[in-house]
Amino acid sequence: MGLLVVVTVLWAFSFSLIGVYLAGQVDSYFAVLMRIGLAALVFLPFLRPSLLRGRQRLALMGLGAVQLGVMYIFFYQSFLLLSVPEVLLFTIFTPIYIALLDDALFGRFTPFYLLTASLAVLGAAVIRYQGLDSGFWAGFLVVQGANLCFALGQVGYRRLSADLPETLPRHSVFGWFYLGALAVAVPAFALLGNAAGLPSSGIQWGVLLWLGLVASGLGYFLWNLGATRVDAGALAIMNNALIPAGLLVNLVIWNRDADLLRLGLGGAIIVGSLALNEWWLKRRRLETA
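Structure tokens predicted for Carboxylate/amino acid/amine transporter (289 residues):
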């Protein structure tokens, strides 16, 4: 859980950096390519191909392609169809996808996870809801594509990791994850990117370096590692903890308008769902002891 909390704080800062310095100023496909490319550079020096079998390497690359590459393409396209508040609102369904996908991949059904994930969605909706315009269904489906990719990547890594030796140094194989994402990002920029939309200031290049080396490089590694050390319910809930954390950072540093009452109420619901999940886990452990 500690790893997920650390990355939540890390990504909370990243949202504001993107919104202030990159969105609408730097080509989105180039930003994605830079982030993934820099993240790959962080882990390629540690890569030891002999530690994984060929099928495992392909599986890890596939997870990177889905969780980062395809997810980013869906996500950035959604801004062409929806307003920013609508995009943020529609991302709140990710916890439900995680709960359902985790049960499906591990061959079980846990209704309680669906309950706590739904509570997390409710908390995020309280924070982010701002009336919807008509004609938004295409955008809604595109955002759900991004949500499903992000959820599938997390749950898929949990499933793959369960079949790997506990002694395997995860940092020595995670480079395959970013190579898979690059296999999507490179052709996406070549086909859809705009070379005229490159960064034009040192600040923009600095933000991209931070996002690539730290937020994407260190962040996705720690997040996926943390995903293997918690249950599906906690992972689902933590996906929506990013919303109040991001709003809080944006309010404190950039003084953007935020409804403090909604922020507090929604955050309390998300924390409550996490506490409920932890209570249920302890109770289940006592019953099986």
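The two ends are 23 Å apart (CA to CA).
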